[in-house]
Amino acid sequence: MSAETELYREVVVEHKRAPRNFGQLPHPTHQARGRNPSCGDEINVQLQVDDGHIHDIRFDGVGCAICIASASLMTEAIKGDTVSSALDLQRHFRSAMTGREDVDEDVLGKLISLQAVRNYPSRIKCALLGWHALAHALNDSGSDTTI
Ligand code: ZN
């Protein structure tokens, strides 16, 4: 097994076992539900945004290991960020996962471990679902979206 695949498995298993920021916020300012019918994943993302900053974020729902791990990593990556840098990161992550952009470790940080998903094209939507819901929550709160 390559080092890349090993890191990927470790991160996905760990975040599926103990997802970070899993649950619901009492008074979210933004939220959206995302569905990925090809796998059966369904994720709800809630945010507490104040003065252009993401003060808190939670997600819940059901999904495969890749979906849950990616959403969990996302919450860690953007909590405390500005809305615009979170949306920037969402675009970079999507481009990196779909192969439109080279993966840049400086930009993606820990998310780099998910790049191995590129080897499984049918699972890319699983990795993108939480991020897709995040963008909808920030741009069109209250909406449902399908990836
Ligand atoms: Zn999935």
Describe this structure in words.
It is a single chain. The protein has 147 residues and is α+β, with helices and mostly antiparallel strands. It has one domain: Sufe protein. Chain: A. Helices cover 44% and strands 20% of the residues. Strands 3-2-1-4 form a four-stranded mixed sheet, covered by helices on one side. A hairpin with a 2-residue loop joins β2 (41-50) and β3. α2 crosses α5 and α3 runs antiparallel to α5 (124-139). It is globular, with a radius of gyration of 14 Å. The mean pLDDT is 93.
What characteristics describe this protein?
binds zinc ion; 147 residues; single chain; alpha+beta; Sufe protein. Chain: A; four-stranded mixed beta sheet; 5 helices
Bound molecules: zinc ion
Q: Provide the number of structural domains.
A: 1
Q: Sheet with the most strands?
A: 4 strands, mixed
Unreliable sequence segments: none
CATH topology type: Sufe protein. Chain: A
Helices, by number, come to 5
Physical arrangement of strands within the biggest beta sheet: 3-2-1-4
CATH architecture call: Alpha-Beta Complex
Extended strand count: 4
Following the backbone from N to C, one meets helices and strands in this order, namely HEEEHHHHE
Average of pLDDT: 93
